[in-house]
Write a structure and sequence with these properties.
Elements lengths: L6 H5 L7 H15 L8 H18 L1 H10 L15 H7 L1 H8 L17 E7 L1 H6 L1 E12 L14 E3 L8 E6 L2 E6 L8 E3 L11 E12 L8 E4 L15 E7 L6 E3 L2 E9 H6 L1 E7 L2 E7 L8 E4 L15 E8 L6 H35 L1
Parallel strand pairs: 1-9, 11-15
Antiparallel strand pairs: 2-7, 3-6, 4-5, 8-9, 10-11, 12-13, 14-15
Helix pairs in contact: 2-3, 3-4
């Protein structure tokens, strides 16, 4: 399989396809090129592996985001399946084959390991923590192996019995023409066994709900909507399968002084028109304290000043953005009588000055015309 294939072209979907479209496209290709339907066909086998690789990347929001932004280079160093054999594909995407195709149901004593379900949580963090990062913990509630019965669901020493409904397979089959469709056994819920003397702690399920504090390292530079992945912190797997993952979606509390724009921070400063006209030295806030800033005389409303390196650290990179200071002139609304008189005199003086300039320009224009 070529290392630089376009995964969207492989599945035949657009780049804005939603997860259900991607899943349907993969189902269609997996059905078409399934090895049980194409025995000995190496080209079909290659297409089958190629579709699986594309599906693994495009079904995962984090991997898909890296692929969309950087192509194959963005996936280098990530740990994802190479699918050198079909068992890897069946183990990774077993739910698709079990629910829709059911080509190769293993015997009870060889039931395929099933990965645990992923968990999704939302965590709200302070603006400062998003910028500089921190270590925290989140409390999750998930299924874990019942310790008293070690996941068997039986009392210690209790008999192990095969499910009479599915004969220990954990699934039941229905045929639709050429295809066999497998569904989870409704009697044993996929375990393949019956419990004569259920464990009183888990009531025969083999699983228990448990609260757990999970340590989470928030890297510097994260933003609203950033998703963090904690491997192995999801639901416990079945039949010896690995646990799922825990995904944390971050929500950032807005800051009172700063607005974020990518890696830059924006802070708005209000000045009186007198301060802007005469110029002034002020202290502006940063995330690390305050810094002096000189506002030159004659500064206009909307002017921007850049303080380099006082923005947000680049996520998983080097350097920081900048702090942008935007000026806004404030019009006074509660003038005293003396202040109003002074402004009238200023206005009259300014009008007289403007009139003199206009008259001077007209005189120069007449002089130039006469000379010509």
């Amino acid at each position: 399989m070529g290392d630089r294939v376009d995964y969207y072209q492989v599945l035949g979907v657009d780049k804005d396809a939603d997860p259900e479209e991607i899943k349907r496209a993969y189902r269609r290709l997996a059905l078409k090129y399934h090895p049980d339907r194409n025995p000995g066909d190496q080209n079909a086998n290659e297409k089958f592996r190629e579709a699986a690789a594309a599906y693994e990347i495009l079904r995962d929001p984090q991997k898909r985001g890296l692929y969309n932004q950087f192509g194959h280079a963005g996936l280098e160093g990530l740990n994802f399946g190479t699918f050198n054999n079909f068992e890897n594909i069946f183990a990774s995407f077993g739910e698709i084959f079990d629910d829709f195709f059911g080509f190769s149901q293993p015997p009870p004593h060889q039931r395929r390991k099933q990965s645990g379900k992923d968990l999704h949580y939302q965590l709200e963090i302070d603006f400062q923590d998003a910028v500089f990062g921190r270590e925290t913990s989140v409390e999750v509630i998930k299924n874990v192996i019942c310790q008293p019965c070690q996941g068997s669901g039986r009392l210690a020493g209790g008999p192990k019995q095969t499910c009479s409904f599915c004969q220990g397979y954990g699934t039941v089959s229905q045929f639709d023409g050429f295809f066999r469709i497998n569904t989870t056994c409704p009697h044993c819920l996929g375990t393949g066994g019956e419990v004569a003397d259920p464990c009183p702690k888990c009531r025969g399920l083999g699983l228990q709900k448990q609260k757990k504090d999970v340590t989470l390292k928030i890297p510097a530079g994260v933003d609203e909507g950033t998703r963090l992945r904690l491997r192995g912190e999801g639901e416990v797997g079945q039949f010896g399968g690995p646990p799922g993952d825990l995904y944390i979606d971050l929500k950032v509390t807005p800051h009172q002084l700063f607005k974020r724009d990518g890696h830059n921070l924006i802070h708005r400063v209000q000045l009186s028109f007198v301060e802007a006209a005469l110029g002034i030295d002020i202290d502006v806030p940063t995330l690390n304290g305050s810094l002096p800033l000189t506002i030159p005389a004659g500064t206009q409303s909307g002017a921007k000043f850049t303080i380099y390196g006082e923005g947000v650290p680049v996520l998983r990179g080097n350097g920081r953005g900048n702090l942008i200071i935007e000026l806004e002139l404030q019009t006074p609304t509660d003038l005293t009588s003396r202040q109003a008189d002074l402004l009238r005199k200023f206005l009259a003086s300014n009008q007289k000055k403007a009139s003199a300039k206009t008259k001077s320009r007209r005189t120069r224009a007449v002089a130039s015309k006469t000379a010509a």
